[in-house]
């Protein structure tokens, strides 16, 4: 399998973990049923061992979200972070980008929860190809639940970090018709807006640094970012898996920040009650992103879970 490293501007990054991870982002051409052309899929891989860990990021994010957690996990396990379809540095169109206008290329690939699952399965088949520990943060948790329910043979354990997917999100997608969709994404592109979201995600505001802001915004210049985000939101994104969670037989760890201001606390206990083989670990003095705010504690909780779960 041929891969190539991305060349990203690193001049505004200051944290060593951010720089190191940005330098290690690779792309693999993944063939899927979604497009006649392969999709250049961004990922980072570190570590060696027998049990692969796969990390899935949140909404409008990228593999850089795991800049602090991934190296810690990779000290014990082979660990992958993958950019979901329509997000991060994964291409929003086929590789032959000069053959036709971008709008027409992007229109060929659907951006929805179902398409993300199809693309992720193809990526797993090419890059990993064996049962994995699937770790999903925020929207990535909903993607992980969806994947584990559809392909249970591929997921031997599940880790949900302040996960979406229990309560249905706001139904705003149907209103994102031109020009409203472009106005909404232009608002989200604004760095002051992104900084306010970053501040809300942390319990300790000192983590909302200039480096953190750059990590949340580096993928915004990718071709098709705006069109893909609008299309995904209009598709409905991820709804509630509440009615299906009883069928989730995968041993599951639920990690949740005690001071989560994005999703609150209630869904954590609801997940634990609904998923048969699950345990809940609260992360004290922590907001919506334990993997960024408490990476060592998050890694240790995952290690403990993997060592003790059947």
TrEMBL record:
SUPFAM superfamilies: alpha/beta-Hydrolases. Keywords: Hydrolase. Gene3D superfamilies: alpha/beta hydrolase. The keyword Hydrolase applies. Residues 53-301 form the AB hydrolase-1 domain. One of its GO terms (molecular function) is hydrolase activity. PANTHER family: ALPHA_BETA-HYDROLASES SUPERFAMILY PROTEIN (PTHR43689:SF8), HYDROLASE (PTHR43689). This is Alpha/beta hydrolase. It comes from Leptolyngbya sp. NK1-12. The lineage of its organism: Bacteria, Bacillati, Cyanobacteriota, Cyanophyceae, Leptolyngbyales.
